[in-house]
Amino acid sequence: MAALCRLRQCHSTGIAISHFHTSSRASAKLHYKMLVVGGGTGGISMSARMKRMMGAENVAVVEPSEMHYYQPIWTLVGAGAKTLTSSGRSTASVMPSGVKWVKSKVQEINPDTNTVRTDDGNEITYEYLIVALGLQIHFEKIKGLPEGFEHPKIGSNYSVQTVEKTWKALQDFKEGNAVFTFPNTPVKCAGAPQKIMYLADAYLRK
């Protein structure tokens, strides 16, 4: 969970919250006591928790996507133990009831004025802010990888577009050596490279 400047990390809950109070509430189009930016697993979980603490009418979630994916399942999809369909649900179905869903992208966060501006030009003010925007995957940082995805035996469990290729490549593997790498830098879900190795080993033993 990322936190922007002047946001304090609460170690007991893992929530990044702002302690600045709005001074421009009268001119704002929308105002919420708790604003959550990002409607992935982290954002949805925290909005449900904040609903119980503050009441649904005081909580809003900014999330543009109509589809919500539970990404930890993708390792199992890559190993054939789960289907890609099982990892996705409509965002409407996972949004806590009564919580306001703002279907927009976050364009700018200004902690000095407690304001979030969305890509459709709206401004939302808040008393507390949780930033759960997730990560962007930059496959192009690995030389040759974007082009490599055109090859039938190259896939990735980190993307909804490429995870099913992992399972197809595993099924097509008939002989030879399978090499699994583990980066020595911080990565998204560091356990994933190990899990697919264990799952692949189990599949090949069968």
Rg, alpha carbons: 20 Å
Structural class assignment: alpha/beta
Poorly predicted residue ranges? 1-28
Task: Report the CATH topology name of the largest domain.
Answer: FAD/NAD(P)-binding domain
Largest sheet: 6 strands, mixed
Strand order of the largest sheet: 7-4-3-10-9-8
CATH architecture of the largest domain: 3-Layer(bba) Sandwich
Count the E strands.
10
Average pLDDT for all residues: 86
How far apart, in Å, are the first and last alpha carbons? Answer: 39 Å
What is the name of the CATH class of the largest domain?
A: Alpha Beta
Helical fraction equals 10-25%
Description of the structure:
The chain is an alpha/beta fold. The strands form 3 sheets. A 6-stranded mixed β-sheet has the order 7-4-3-10-9-8, covered by helices on one side. It has helices at 41-54, 74-78, 91-94, 145-148, 163-172, 192-205; strands at residues 8-10, 15-17, 30-37, 59-62, 67-69, 88-90, 100-102, 106-110, 115-118, 123-131. Helices cover 25% and strands 22% of the residues. The chain starts with 7 loop residues before the first strand and ends with a helix. The chain contains 6 helices and 10 strands, in the order E-E-E-H-E-E-H-E-H-E-E-E-E-H-H-H. The model is unreliable at 1-28 (pLDDT under 50). The chain folds into 2 domains: 8-66 and 89-131, FAD/NAD(P)-binding domain; 139-205, no CATH class.
